[in-house]
From TrEMBL:
It comes from the Eukaryota. InterPro entries: Endo/exonu/phosph_ase_sf, Swc5/CFDP1/2. This is Endo/exonuclease/phosphatase domain-containing protein.
Length: 120
C-alpha cells in the first residue's frame, strides 16, 4: 500500500510552479509498483466538474462545478497512471461534495480529491 498525500499549487500560481509540482508528483508515483495499491490524496486545488469527455476511464460525471485550469494537468496525470478520481464516480448529495467553502458561504468547490489505482 502506497499513500501519497500532497498539496498542489493553486490555479493562480505560475505555470512553471504547477509544472514542477506535477513533474515531481509523477516521479513519486513512478516509484510505486503498479501491482500494489496506490492512493493519491490531498488538496489538489483542481475542479474536475461533471464533464468527463476524454477522461471516462478515470472519472465519472458526479463532480462539482466546472473544470478549472489545473484540471488538465491533474486529469492527464491520473490517466497516465491509471488513477481513478474517487469523488466523481458515484452520485453524492451536493453537501457531501464540497471540500472548500468561502468565508461568506457563496462559493463552494470540490478541490480535494482521493484517487486510487484503476485496478482496485
Amino acid at each position: 500500500l502506497y499513500i501519497i498525500q500532497c498539496y498542489a499549487p493553486t490555479n493562480d500560481s505560475n505555470d512553471d510552479i504547477k509544472d514542477q509540482f506535477y513533474e515531481r508528483l509523477q516521479s513519486i508515483i513512478e516509484k510505486c509498483p503498479r501491482k500494489d495499491l496506490t492512493i493519491l490524496m490531498g488538496g489538489l486545488n483542481v475542479k474536475v466538474g461533471i464533464d468527463n469527455i476524454g477522461y471516462e476511464d478515470i472519472m465519472g460525471r458526479h463532480g462539482l462545478g466546472e473544470r478549472n485550469g489545473n484540471e488538465g494537468r491533474f486529469a492527464n496525470l491520473c490517466a497516465f497512471n491509471k488513477l481513478v478520481i474517487g469523488g466523481t464516480i458515484f452520485p453524492h448529495k451536493h453537501i457531501h461534495k464540497d471540500t472548500w467553502i468561502s468565508s461568506d458561504h457563496t462559493t463552494e468547490n470540490q478541490i480535494d480529491h482521493i484517487c486510487i489505482n484503476k485496478k482496485f
